[in-house]
Automatic annotation (TrEMBL):
This is 16S rRNA (Guanine(966)-N(2))-methyltransferase RsmD. The keyword Methyltransferase applies. Keywords: Methyltransferase, Transferase. One of its GO terms (molecular function) is nucleic acid binding. InterPro entries: DNA_methylase_N6_adenine_CS, RNA_MeTrfase_RsmD, SAM-dependent_MTases_sf. Its EC number is 2.1.1.171. The keyword Heme does not apply. Transmembrane segments: none annotated.
Amino acid sequence: MGRMTRIIGGLAGGVRLHVPLRGTRPTSERVREALFGALDARSLCDGARVLDLYAGSGALGLEAASRGAESVVLVERDRAAAKVAQRNAESVARSGAAHAIVEQVAVAQYLHHSGRRFDLVFIDPPYDLPGGELAATLADLAPLLQHPAVVVVEQARRAGPLDLPGDLEVERTRDYGDTTLHFLTTTGEPGDR
């Protein structure tokens, strides 16, 4: 299996996570610490229904599970990466955290057929994903969001602005070295959904 990372905090803090040997770019611990510090400050993981798109090892969704998420779905198309995410989900669940469901399917296919609703979503696509595909993912995701919901998009700093559907707006953007995190929130009133 090779590379490893770990869960930073919560019930599964310190649990080691395997990282797929190829095809994924795990979020650095420094960026995850900053991200989850911001989410914890607003108690956004507690009881959340979490969706982790382009999940890779599942580190973002599993960190949320460790920090009190009610449910977690990890969506990863690559079979080898999905197997690693499944193994990691089982390790984290042994700590008493929510057991994540791993869906080995393309993101667009999952979003079109899910029917589930989410309050916290992580989108960490490959840095070479075409911008139009990310815009389509955000548009497909919008109907599955509770109100209020938070969507965190991780991109290369050089990627430029996001193309957002009308139901999402940028709350804030933070840069960490070559990585940019966009924190998006749903717009409108709860009755609009």
